[in-house]
């Protein structure tokens, strides 16, 4: 995938490797962006671990593990299979969600999805809040600047549930 992209069936979204930042930056990220705006991907897989060159490859190995492989560094694992799923597929859905599915299960079980790991943009179908079963928190974190997705910026948007209702919070680092 280092020189290719994956396009959603409706043609609105593209996933692939992209450079973010100034022209001098060699930082490369696996991202998803709108087809008509490649300047700011709305999701970055390796936001905290940019690749310093263009050698990145997204791989699904024989055990069903999904990882980012690149020269000169340890693989970045996104999904580690807990079962013996043998017919795993990856798809970029029309919603912009990159999904890893087990095609052998009758219901095409979702094993991993990018919407569970939002970065700075909220799209329809994404979640904010806490998964009380797993403890996972879904929140949005701003970029440091238009040219720097990492480290995260000063703004975090999250949702917390209370017995009386829902409270949304915008946290600003000082």
From TrEMBL:
Subcellular location: Cell membrane
Reaction(s) catalysed by this chain's protein: L-seryl-[protein] + ATP = O-phospho-L-seryl-[protein] + ADP + H(+); L-threonyl-[protein] + ATP = O-phospho-L-threonyl-[protein] + ADP + H(+)
EC number: 2.7.11.1
Domain of life: Eukaryota
Organism (species): Populus trichocarpa
First and last residue of the signal peptide: none
Protein's UniProt name: non-specific serine/threonine protein kinase
UniProt KW Transmembrane keyword: yes
Domain named Bulb-type lectin: residues: 1-113
